């Protein structure tokens, strides 16, 4: 269960990071609310996962998945360019996250 919560929390990390950028310094109310709710739920899920998973592993997985999804969202929205090299590096990052799960 901790792994499922951790992955859901990592997805929420990408949501709050994207909403933070869209909030324009907290000047836009809707993205600011999405940011606050998603960040609270993401942190709560990470905290829950850390009760049964090693802190370093949980944090690395949370950050890795969140970072990759944030880049993919930005690329899908046309805000970042996803080159083949960047895609390969992101795939490598996900591979390392899967490796952490495999050895935990």
TrEMBL record:
Q: What is its main location?
A: membrane
What InterPro entries is this protein classified in?
A: Small_drug/metabolite_transptr, Small_multidrug_res
Similarity field: Belongs to the drug/metabolite transporter (DMT) superfamily. Small multidrug resistance (SMR) (TC 2.A.7.1) family.
What membrane topology is annotated for this entry?
Answer: Multi-pass membrane protein
Keyword Secreted part of the UniProt annotation: no
Q: Does the keyword Lipoprotein feature in the UniProt annotation? A: no
Q: Which keywords fit this entry according to its UniProt record? A: Cell membrane, Membrane, Transmembrane, Transmembrane helix, Transport
Entry protein name: Multidrug efflux SMR transporter
The portions of this protein that span the membrane are: 33-51, 58-78, 84-103
Subcellular location field: Cell membrane
């Amino acid at each position: 269960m901790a792994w499922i919560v951790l992955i859901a929390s990592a997805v929420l990390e990408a949501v709050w990071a994207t909403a933070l950028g869209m909030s324009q310094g907290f000047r836009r109310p809707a993205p600011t609310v999405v940011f606050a709710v998603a960040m609270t739920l993401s942190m709560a899920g990470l905290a829950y996962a850390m009760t049964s998973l090693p802190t370093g592993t949980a944090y690395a997985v949370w950050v890795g998945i969140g970072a990759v999804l944030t880049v993919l969202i930005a690329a899908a929205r046309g805000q970042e360019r996803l080159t083949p090299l960047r895609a390969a590096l992101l795939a490598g990052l996900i591979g390392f996250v899967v490796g952490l799960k495999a050895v935990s």
